[in-house]
Amino acid sequence: MTPKNELLFCGLGGSGEIGMNVNLYGCQGKWVMVDLGITFADPQYPGVDVILPDLSFIEDRIDDLLGIVITHGHEDHIGSLPYLAEDLGVPIYATPFTMGLIRGKLEEEGIANRVKLKMIPMGGNFQLGPFGFTFVEMSHSIPEANALLIDTPYGRVFHTGDWKLDKNPVIGNPTTPEGFMAIGDKGVDVLVCDLDQHLQRHRVG
Q1: Average pLDDT in the 36-63 region?
Q2: Measured CA distances, 187 to 24, 137, 138, 139, 182 (Å)
Q3: Mean pLDDT for the chain?
Q4: Residue 23 φ/ψ, nearest 5 degrees
Q5: Angle at the Cα of 124 (from 120 to 129), degrees rounded to 5?
Q6: Is the Cα dihedral 103, 104, 109, 112 positive or negative?
Q7: Dihedral sign, CA of 126, 96, 91, 11?
């Protein structure tokens, strides 16, 4: 499948589950990946500690992959990078704290000099082919958690990553209903968010 003049979403992991977050967006012949995490095994897999996502879909289209954009530094969003990033062969984009965690993992694996890292400031934006990315700070349990505003010729996506509504977060700045409404007022065509889990986990609403 090659994206045509359209906007496609393909979840390779993390949708409807906690862990192993890997999401693809396709547009005008190109793909971008958001997050590349692991999930932790349970007793039905004796002797297995972690599980990596199946990337065969994008590996078959590797020449069309432009980059990997990371929302934040939890293992279910970055844990597969040391094992899969070199083979994918595209740059990784992340904010400074998250990039520090990623660099440490790549150094432990001995591949830090073989993976391109592109650090983006908090609130920063950049362009990857037909995709425009803007980092949006969110409240979470780790520094520099971000949502992504993804602009394409065929619509704007608000990809939340992990978040919580918290007026007085221990880390970072508050995420508020007013902040969400301000983003919506600017125009959002698609919301990508594991809403049910976050409503339950953070007791929102």
Answers
A1: 87
A2: 21, 18, 19, 22, 9
A3: 89
A4: -130, 140
A5: 80
A6: positive
A7: negative
